[in-house]
Amino acid sequence: MVLRTILRYIASHPELVERLSETWVIRRLAQLTAYSYIKAKEIGEDGVQKGVEKIRDSEVLRSLEEQPPDESDRVSSFTRTFAKELREGMDELSEKIDKEKIKDKNN
Question: Residue 29's Cα: distance from chain center in Å?
Answer without folding.
Answer: 24
